[in-house]
Amino acid sequence: MTIIRSLPLIHTLFFLCLCLINSSVYAATPIQITNDSEIKLEQFEMAYFVDKSENMPFEQVQGQNFTKSSNRLSLGTKSKTTWIKIQLHNVDKNTQKLYLHHPYAYHNSKVELYEVEQGVLSNVRVLDMDKKETQQWMYRGSAVFDFTLQPNQQKTLFVKSLSFSHQWFALNIYDENQSKRALLGQFTNIALVVGMLLALIIYNFLLFFSSRLKEHFYYACYLVSGGFWIALSYGLFADLFNIFGSVTIIWHLSLVTMPFFLLLFMINIFETKKKYPIEHWALVAVLILLVINFIHGLFDIVAALDYSSTLAAIMMLASLSVSLSMLIRRHPMALFFLIGHGLFVAFSTLAVLFYKGIAEFNYVNSHGVGIGIALEALVLSLIIAYRIRTLEKLKSTQADLQLLASTDPLTKLFNRRHFNSAAVQHLDLAEQTKQTSSIALIDIDHFKSINDTYGHTLGDKSIKCVANIIKNQSRQEDILARYGGEEFIILMPNTNLDDAFILIERIRKKLESTTIEIDTNQSIQLTISAGIAEVNTQDLNLQEAINQADKALYKSKNNGRNQSQLFKE
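The line above is the sequence of diguanylate cyclase; the predicted structure tokens follow.
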């Protein structure tokens, strides 16, 4: 009967033991430090305590119940003052000099280290990010505290971490060699991402200056904001320039400007103002909220950053909705934007959950915003490439249309209208350089009889033959055109009357020795008559020079054709 009555008591004691075992209260054995060749502790058990009062003295903190955790923690915005407890035991016979690393100390306001031996406080170090005299423990963005463990000594380290807003950190323990290695390559990956963004920034600013297209400017400004925030938030500025502490808080407004430029980029590439008024005003409304928050941040940055999470959610919802709307409307760039922005939203969501202490501490979650910005930037660069290719096609089409409008379709020489325009431009330049120019009019002899005798097909063939010979015998700088039915004109820059005569005679003699086959048994020979005039350098009158060349041409015809005549006063 006694055994039976004692069973409920046994069950109760067993249940209490299980509760103690499963309790989150820290009661772990110390971390054992052995005489290994290298000491590199990056995954170990510690404990933390959140001081809600934010001013509890150390003597009182020692007696608090600490919660067991890993050495990587994210506790959100309500844990600005957090204490960490690490127990160590040197089981080796040799003295160990070790280094405690806080690699994300650059985003804290203070980091303090308390060393306790056998319940007695033996050493205190306070690192205040705003006081240079305490920054000897700050190295390239990381807080590094050295401490010593004597043989068989047990020591408890208490680390006090004071954050500005979000509390997240990782603590590592190294020997001297591993400490140096950890510091050397800590921000290499961030530097590579910022370098990639910098290349895109320069490229898009150059595109903007050359094309004056606003999307390049907005995209470049978006990259500037994103790259600046990545360098600031992930320690690159702290690593390169020792920039940390309260002075950097206002700089986090760059995260507010980033969506501002992204929305302007959307408005521009989707042309919402002209084509999609509902989507346009939705984006404009979010823009106004962002501007208000930015102005608020200039006076109260902490409050503005608190609102930024809500604004970011509104911006993401609006931008994704507009992207889906554009995709439904089959806008050619909507899919690219939706993929890029979707990646940004996905990784930024992981980051928000991490900063709030909901998601676990890993590289992807802790660097989610930076990863999202980099991926979005790469995908949006495809939109830029697509826009450039589209504009190039449009310019090519316009160039083709312009060429068709300025070219004679039969001979592929310039037509009369384009010749007049090009000749005037050249003569304006010649007036400045005091160069002599000459003009020649060329006419196919007896062309009407060729058309009447052999038909228009052979007539067209004859015109093409003359045009090809003129083109092949002329110089690259000469301006050639079909001026009428069987009449051609040549403007010869930097050419006096005698040199022009030599050039035209070369064309005439080449044509004189050329035959055009009518059929296998019959062919014809073509001749031309030409009139040449020199453009008056004192009065560069194009039409006057053409009239003079026409008079010389008339003289060639009256003298029997198949010859070149110069106009002389």
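Note on the example: The chain has three domains: 25-184, 188-399, 416-566. Residues 1-27 have pLDDT under 50 and may be disordered.
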